[in-house]
Amino acid sequence: MDVHVIDHPLAQARLTAMRDARTDSPSFRAALRELTTMLVYEAARSFPVEKYPVQTPVTGTEGTRLANPPLLVPVLRAGLGMADAALGLLPESSMGFVGLARDEETYEPRAYMESLPRDLAGLPVLVLDPMLATGGSLEHCCRLLADRGCTDITVLCVLAAPIGIERLERSGLPLRLVTASIDEGLNDKMFIVPGLGDAGDRQFGGMPRF
Ligand SMILES: O=P(O)(O)OC[C@H]1O[C@H](OP(=O)(O)OP(=O)(O)O)[C@H](O)[C@@H]1O
Ligand SMILES: O=c1cc[nH]c(=O)[nH]1
Ligand SMILES: [Mg+2]
């Protein structure tokens, strides 16, 4: 599996703001939006393009556009904070939604929402979820996509734990990963260390569980 870490100084500065426990929800959401713009920008570097004629005020020339804009799939809740920034860079894209909540005892994902096109053959998908911890949630999401015929999945994360990356690798699913960091590991509650806490709660409120 191709894993790409975005170590640009501006991306790392936004990530640091998100890690900082003193960062409040509005600033956390702003840093996530800005970091998502950078992750999407880098992930899109390899997207196929097509040429088409455009007229400038001076003359005719050749323009460039994405040949096949991806479907965007934020994983609720935490991925919602990446959706608007991704759509801003990819305005031609459509959006599907997957709602998953990790069980606090088994750490397995519980699916509560799924709104996706029935047939994803030929359509690349950009999955948005800031956290790859055990990998259960993203494996579940990517399997839903592959079951609908998707063969080209890019997962965008803020943080990835090595064990989660290994799980996605073992899944054999057709995906690549773009992340701002590969962290050290997980604690006994399966939170990423050093991490940033619960990405959903830090954006939208909730009780700390780590
Ligand atoms: O790799 P995993 O061990 O499966 O953990 C990662 C998942 O945990 C978080 O969601 P959470 O279940 O906390 O739901 P939320 O977004 O509603 O907070 C996160 O956004 C991922 O989806
Ligand atoms: O560290 C973690 C692990 C899973 N989900 C989160 O939001 N944070
Ligand atoms: Mg959460």
UniProtKB/TrEMBL annotation:
Q: Which cofactor does it need?
A: Mg(2+)
Q: Which UniProt keywords apply?
A: Allosteric enzyme, Glycosyltransferase, GTP-binding, Nucleotide-binding, Transferase
* Reaction catalyzed: UMP + diphosphate = 5-phospho-alpha-D-ribose 1-diphosphate + uracil
Could you tell me the EC number(s) of this protein? Answer: 2.4.2.9
Its Gene Ontology cellular component terms are: cytoplasm
Q: Name one GO molecular function term.
A: GTP binding
The broad enzyme category this protein falls into is: transferase
Looking up InterPro entries in the UniProt record yields: PRTase-like, PRTase_dom, UPRT, UPRTase/APRTase
Q: Known Pfam families for this protein? A: UPRTase
The protein's annotated pathway: Pyrimidine metabolism; UMP biosynthesis via salvage pathway; UMP from uracil: step 1/1
Q: Which domain of life is it from?
A: Bacteria
- Quick one: a GO biological-process term for this protein? uracil salvage
Q: Where do the Phosphoribosyltransferase domain residues begin and end?
A: 5-205
Q: In which family does this protein belong, per the annotation?
A: Belongs to the UPRTase family.
Q: What does this protein do?
A: Catalyzes the conversion of uracil and 5-phospho-alpha-D-ribose 1-diphosphate (PRPP) to UMP and diphosphate.
**What protein name does the entry list?**
Uracil phosphoribosyltransferase
Q: Which organism is it from?
A: Micromonospora siamensis
